[in-house]
Amino acid sequence: MVAVVREKDFLYKNFLVKKMIYNQNESYWKRYVRNALEPKVIEHESWLENEYANGTKIYDGNPIYSAKLHNQKAIRIIQEEPESDTRQIAAWVEETEDEHENKIEELVISLELTRDTRKLALELIKEWASKISMQKMLLLIEEKID
Amino acid sequence: MGKKSKIHRGRFQAQGNGLEESESWAQDKPLSISSALSLLRGLIAKLNPSDYTRRKKEFEKAEEFVENASENGGIFAVKKKTFKVKGSKDERVDIEVLGGKAFVKNNENE
Fold this sequence. Notes:
The complex is a heterodimer. Chain A is an alpha+beta fold.
């Protein structure tokens, strides 16, 4: 069944319009991810600093949150403009590399933010931070989202 | 010359729904805006018409990001941008700047 979303379900609805709301929205994700994971699991928060070379911050939610984890894994959350009347959340895992050319496995979550999508995202993040393999994570994503 | 000496590196990718195409760079100087746009066009040329049509808007967003970056001094690694087709499972256009600097104005990488 397709989950219906109403206008009032969106959280931080104007995050792409007002910088203050955007900053609060960023803090919101930090708070929730930190609550979901053991402190020792997060190695480097905001490792994908969202700014141009001249230091200008990019307020596009792409990503709104990123972190490198202790086990050669990473997470990235992309928050999209809230505009849909059905639940919007997608996730996938991929191999990438860090600044030292070390291979890392990354969980990417793209969503429109509601309490429902936040809950799903945090469930996926908690599983990803454990010893789960990419293959099993793909199955879990299918089970929970697709 | 070894890979390690090419400090400025990254890739553009079109992925999802079975597609996996990319255009990458690895070079001694930061990638210029014109080279970046040329790589993006090269990536589009690799796609069949329907894969491109599905991602047309996302390619435009990627191009806009590269242009904005160029107006703001480029971007330093590591940066990852994903422009996902709304409503799709995972169809997307990705930008990854994995080392050094990219999207500088043409006269800044000489």
